[in-house]
Automatic annotation (TrEMBL):
Residues 4-226 form the NAD-dependent epimerase/dehydratase domain. This is UDP-glucose 4-epimerase. InterPro entries: Epimerase_deHydtase (IPR001509), Lipid_A_modif_metabolic_enz (IPR050177), NAD(P)-bd_dom_sf (IPR036291). It comes from Planobispora rosea. Pfam families: Epimerase.
Length: 299
């Protein structure tokens, strides 16, 4: 038996796998993207909805399942994005929840986007109203409903809502990755709305650690994973300039409706459950992210 991580080749998934392996756990990583096996890690390269028997057996025999697989990207406007979100966020999630025995804990990654942003600069609390804007957020709300149904039937289920996770391997469509790429090439940083907008930026290493500790503690229900502190886009841009030792310029564009003015996590429940909440050293985090990219480019 082992811990299962779906989406194990993804941004957060890779860091979670490393976190679990470093604590001595055996891990089965499931992803459509091939990964090299290594000590402690068994790799299954498969689609969750393909009917793969090895995937089914792994899910049924797991100690704990971390379901991180899905269709990411709030800003994705591809022609088939609605179908991909339904398939990869809702249907694949439903399959995992139905396949894993009720006695086995399942931790499911939702998103802070379900809140629709912080209102009047107030932190978003797990019990607060959901105001999803855009197809990505709505697909995550549907996934959460499936989780609530499993929990109501006695299935051990945890939903996490991560806030703006950053660090090594961040997806290239996310703001810090886009800004680092633009700054390297001497292009202006594209800003949506205003440099005074804020984001609760969470270190991917600490997010992964929090997930592992929530699962180990047997926590059920919904939990925010964030810092409880907003970082302005201006501060994020300054961290990019410092990390690359360069000057940056900006182009400011109107923000689409799916872009919240601010995001801010209420982390009181997280602290009460595991005794701590993430704290982000923004300049250090961005330096780490930039260095990791440079290492990949050099290899």
């Amino acid at each position: 038996m082992a811990s299962i991580v779906t989406g194990s080749a993804g941004f957060i998934g890779r860091t979670l796998v490393e976190t679990l392996l470093s604590s001595g756990e055996k891990v089965v990583g499931i992803d459509r993207v091939a990964q090299p096996p290594r000590p402690g890690l068994t790799v299954l390269t498969a689609d969750l909805l393909s009917g793969d028997e090895l995937v089914r057996a792994a899910l049924q025999d797991a100690d704990v399942v971390y379901h991180l697989a899905g269709c990411p990207g709030v800003r994705d406007r591809g022609p088939d994005v609605a179908l991909r979100r339904r398939r990869d966020n809702v249907l694949a999630g439903a399959h995992v929840l139905a396949t894993v025995p009720r006695r086995v804990p399942v931790l499911v990654a939702s998103s802070s986007s379900v809140y629709g942003g912080a209102r009047a600069c107030r932190p978003s609390h797990e019990a607060g109203p959901l105001r999803p804007v855009g197809g990505y957020a709505r697909s995550k709300v549907l996934l959460e409903r499936l989780c609530a149904e499993r929990l109501a039937r006695g299935g051990r289920t945890t939903v996490i809502r991560p806030f703006t996770v950053a660090g090594e391997g961040q997806r290239p469509d996310m703001a810090l990755a886009l800004w680092l790429a633009a700054a390297r090439e001497g292009r202006p940083l594209r800003v949506l709305g205003s440099l005074d907008r804020t984001r609760d930026v969470t270190d991917v290493r600490q997010a992964a650690r929090a997930m592992a500790e929530l699962a180990a503690a047997g926590v059920q229900g919904v939990v925010n994973i964030g810092t409880g502190r907003g970082q302005t886009l201006r501060a994020m841009a300054a961290a990019v300039a410092e990390a690359l030792d360069t000057e940056v310029s900006f182009t400011v564009e109107q923000a689409p409706a799916a872009e919240p003015g601010a995001s801010l996590a209420d982390v009181r429940r997280l602290r009460s459950l595991i005794g701590w909440s993430p704290e982000t050293d923004l300049p250090g985090l961005v330096r780490r992210q930039a260095a990791a990219h440079a290492l990949v480019e050099a290899s």
